[in-house]
Amino acid sequence: MSSADPTRQSRHVARLMLMLLLAPALLWLLGLIVLPHVELGMLSMRARVAPRVYEPSLAQFRTFFEEPLYWHTFMRTALMSIVATALTLLMAFPIAWTIAKLVRGHTKSMLFVMCLIPFWVSETVRTLGWMILLRESGVLPALLVWLGVTPAPVELLYHDATILVGLVYTSMLFMVIPLISALESLDDSLIEAAYDLGGNGWSILRQIVIPHAAPGIVAGCIVVFMLTLGNYLTPTLLGGKNSQWFTEQIYTQFITRFNWEQGAAFGFLLLALSTAIVWAGLKLSGQKFGEVMQRS
User: Fold this and answer.
1) Rounded to whole angstroms, what are the CA distances from 179 to 100, 168, 170, 174, 219?
2) Which residues of 73-111 are buried (b: 16+ CB within 10 A; e: fewer)?
3) Does the structure show a pLDDT above 50 at 1?
4) Residue 251 is part of a domain; what is its CATH number?
5) DSSP state letters, 148-215
6) Where does the ABC transmembrane type-1 domain start and stop, copy by copy (predicted)?
7) Which of 37, 63, 238, 269 has CB atoms 3.0–4.6 Å from 166's, for a disulfide?
8) Residue 28 within a domain
9) Is the pLDDT of residue 92 over 70?
10) Which domain holds residue 209?
11) 38, part of any domain
12) Is the distance from CB of 213 to CB of 186 less than 8 angstroms?
């Protein structure tokens, strides 16, 4: 009995310490994520029938499907986010491969710091920097005129391509880091053996590198897609009035029209879209969510 009691006491102490360590994170999740989502869910399923008088209703969701502007903006945001995620992956993979496999020492550290430098300032400053570069009186249009490419300065802002440039730039780091983590664990001897057996660069990439880096690829795509889908600042500033981004519709309902019920419904529709696309991506890639999140 005397030997069992200290063991049981130590287990209770260990559990208590674990609960104390987890308490701040659990409170943070409860107060800033769970409770606000519950409140938004309740708001989205009621309708105002008189001042301060509400009744259960799904009218907000019906409005979304009946108004072409809303679902057109919804689908446009989803497609643009998928394109931005794909472009980010295509640009980040060579960078991650270079940092993980081709360079060593100070060069490796320098390249990684270069990826971090843009994130030392806020997203607002980074986006305003792009506006200074791309506006009609900005640096890039003046350079094109000086080189003789265009006869007069052209407005490079307020286009879909401009929005994609900003989204890729603001989310690049979140794709590079999980890719580096996945590629660093790839044994170089596997690649050397593949070359010895007659493999070429494309076959090695397709059969060895990509399958090994798949968890990192999926993790990076999930993070970048979620950040891009929920981005408000970059599409609004770089796309102007023609950005047609769904988060702008949510902002309009909450802040401009004070229609919190409609804004909450739009928010849950965006959450459902992101969840569905992430689930589909996991199914198509054959990855498990837990393994993927270990790479992010």
Assistant:
1) 9, 16, 17, 9, 8
2) bbeebbebbbbbbebbbeebbebbbebbbeeeeeebeeb
3) no
4) 1.10.3720.10
5) TSSSS----SSSHHHHHHHHHHHHHHHHHHHHHHHHHTS-HHHHHHHHHTT--HHHHIIIIIHHHHHH
6) 74-281
7) 238
8) no
9) yes
10) 59-93+157-285
11) no
12) yes
Rounded Cα gap, residues 145 and 213, in angstroms: 43
Residue 151, domain member (yes or no): no
Amino acid at 233: L
pTM of the predicted model, to two decimals? 0.87
Helices (H), 34-187: 35-44, 59-66, 68-97, 105-116, 123-134, 139-146, 160-184
Please give the single-letter amino acid code of residue 18.
L
Residue where the block lists tokens 């569905």:
276
* Phi and psi, residue 152, nearest 5°: -145, 160
Contact 63, 71 (CB under 8 A): no
Helix (H, G, I), strand (E, B) or coil at 76: helix
Mean residue pLDDT of the chain comes to 88
Give domain status of residue 195, yes or no.
yes
pLDDT at 103 over 90: no
Using the predicted structure, report yes or no on whether residue 246 has a pLDDT greater than 50: yes
Q: What pLDDT does residue 9 have?
A: 75
Q: Are 245 and 236 in contact (CB under 8 A)?
A: yes
Write the pLDDT tens digit of every residue in 132-183: 999 888 889 999 999 998 898 898 899 999 999 999 999 999 999 999 989 9
Angle, CA 47 vertex, CA 42 and CA 53 arms, to 5°: 100
User: What's the CA gap between 182 and 89, in Å, rounded?
Assistant: 14
Collect all residues with Cβ–Cβ distance below 8 Å to 37 and sequence separation of at least 6: 271
The values of phi and psi at residue 136, to 5°, are -60, -35
| Top-confidence range, 105-119, 194-208, 264-278 | 264-278
